[in-house]
Each structure stands twice: as structure tokens, then as C-alpha cells.
Design brief:
Layout: H1 2-25, H2 32-39, H3 41-55, H4 68-79, H5 84-101
């Protein structure tokens, strides 16, 4: 029963934070520079989450040349100009191939 109370309060707090920020900032017009800056935040967050997983997959620094994660991410970035599906597919294929080869 305690877990449901915890989930309920977490939901209420999360909703309250989003509702208050929506109500406060809905009438404010942001400058172009601020809008451009905020549009880059998801990219920065994703990079900060993926970086350690690419360069430290075992928890310690390794040479990127020997990491399947590095090659898969590099191929994914290079193929991303052709769309999300080809990039994801290429990254997965390179990762699985590198993993099977022992990288």
C-alpha cells in the first residue's frame, strides 16, 4: 500500500511543477536567443547521458578504437543525415557485429 501512496505523491509533485511553470511562463514571450538556447537543451542532455555509455561502457576509460559502442555511435551519427530509421538500423548492426567480433 505504501508504494501506491509514494507513486501518487510523485505524480502530484511532478504535475504541480509542470502546471506552475506552464501557468507562470505561458504569458511571457521569450527572446530569440533564449528560444534557440532552450531548443538545444534536449541535445545537450542526451549527449551528457550517452557520452559515458559510449566511452566508459565497463565503468572505466577504454581506448575508443576498441569499443563497439564508439563505432556504433560514429556510424549512427554519419548515417543520421539519411533519417532516423537508417541511422538506428546501422548503429544496431555495427554494435552487434562489433560485439560478436569481440570488441
Amino acid at each position: 500500500m505504501n508504494i501506491f501512496i509514494l507513486i501518487f505523491f510523485m505524480t502530484v509533485i511532478t504535475f504541480a511543477i509542470r502546471a506552475v511553470s506552464l501557468l507562470v511562463f505561458s504569458s511571457i514571450t521569450l527572446s530569440t536567443l533564449t528560444t534557440r538556447f532552450l531548443s538545444l537543451v534536449p541535445v545537450a542532455v542526451l549527449s551528457s547521458l550517452c557520452g559515458p555509455l559510449i566511452f566508459k561502457p565497463s565503468g572505466y576509460w577504454s581506448n575508443p578504437i576498441n569499443l563497439a559502442e564508439f563505432w556504433a555511435s560514429l556510424v549512427t551519427v554519419l548515417v543520421a543525415r539519411y533519417g532516423a530509421l537508417p541511422a538506428i538500423t546501422a548503429g544496431i548492426v555495427v554494435y552487434i557485429t562489433g560485439y560478436k567480433l569481440g570488441f
